[in-house]
Amino acid sequence: MSDSLDVGPLVEGLFRHSYGRMLAALTRVLGFEHLERAEDVVQDALLRALRHWRVHGVPDDPQAWLVRAARNAAIDEARRDTNLRDNAERIRAWSEGALERSAAPAADDTLALMFACCQPSLAPDARTALTLKCVCGFSVAEIARAFLADEATITQRITRAKAKLREVAVEVRVPEGQELEQRIESVLEVLYLVGNEGLLAHQGAELVRVELVHEALRLALQLAALPTTERPQVHALSALLALQAARLPARSDEAGNLLVLEDQDRSLWDRRLLALGFRHLALAARGDQWSELHIEAGIAAQHAAAPTWAATDWPAILALYDQLLERRPSPVVALNRAVALAMVEGPQFALDAVEALAVHPALARSLLLPALQGELYRRVGDRSRANACYDRALSMPCSVPQRLFFERRRTQ
Q: Can you name the residues that pair with 258 across neighbouring β-strands?
């Protein structure tokens, strides 16, 4: 087999699909105090795959190969370290069980690690950053973009969070009772952020990262299916993620170019996921709870129910954004609201609202601000200012499809 065999994309895909599940299972076996050792083991398995497959070819069952590699690396660690020696048999038992399940560690393991990372003793930002790193396999750079923070701050946040959880000897399990209530909001926030990162990748050749959206949806559905974690907010998040995932097939054309909602072929939307989203939206309506997730799912449902862009109920969407802004007064929500405002009151009204937000420091690194400003200036006929906004967007980190989209907008 040629040494030049390019297996990088396959390994990267497996990393996204398997990292959190394998790390969760090993951390449950070894204990949270050995989290960093488990991280090293999983990363070592993936590096071994990259080296071995490049020379010998990809095995018939790549996932099973990774599980065996992780098992062997973990057992080697256990033999070298007296603190881990008693875990060797548990590691073997985990790998055998994983292979019997077609090499897919149980979803409960992933949820258990998520809840472990969402300890109330941690600050909310620390919980979310740690979970994105350990459970979802996000890089520090990706987490920094999600928080609009610098990488050094995120690294320090994650390091301190790990130390704190080792100090309190956190258990890797799905909690119950009051302990569950103290953590589930953080778990939902993490899944929400994972879905957002997948819906619009901030860097790279791909516009969306489908595996992240579907992983967030998978875990949300797992929460909705467990009697102890099933509740209206969980159904609302499941609905939101399913309705957003349903639109992914129409987000780009055959050449990979970004298509805004107005230009999408709605016949390509996934009808199964739309039905799933509306089913969970109905379940979310049970009871008297009304959360921000309910409102966002309602906005997604309005888009999903509209047969065309022109037939969208924009006044209803604007009203929902008004509710969301009242509950969560953030500049990002206000920017998204401006899209609906433009459709209801006209682009100049929306432009005035956006210009008032432009000085907000939280938007200094936001690609959404110049992108929306450029679109609104284009709609009011101010081509010079529109192009200046697109130029500013092009100077910021963005994916290749986004970059090509802004370049096309400059010439339209």
A: 252
What mean pLDDT value characterizes the chain?
85
Per-residue model confidence (pLDDT) at position 240: 98
Tokens 């609905």 identify what position? 239
Among candidates 183, 199, 197, 295, which has minimal Cα distance to 239?
Answer: 295
pTM of the model: 0.81
In the block, tokens 């953030």 appear at: 330
- Return all residues near 228 (Cβ < 8 A) that are at least 6 apart: 174, 176, 180
| Backbone Cα Rg of the chain | 23
In one letter, which amino acid is 10?
Answer: L
Q: What is the DSSP string of 11-63?
A: HHHHHHHHHHHHHHHHHHHH-GGGHHHHHHHHHHHHHHHHHHHHHH---S-HH
pLDDT band at 258 (very low <50, low <70, confident <90, very high): confident
Q: Which residue has the tokens 């076996």?
A: 29
123 touches 162 (CB < 8 A): no
d(CA 154, CA 129): 7
Do 184 and 381 contact (CB within 8 A), yes or no?
Answer: no
Long-range contacts made by residues 264-273, C-beta under 8 angstroms, separation at least 24?
266/307, 266/308, 269/304, 270/245, 270/246, 271/246, 272/246, 273/242, 273/243, 273/245, 273/246
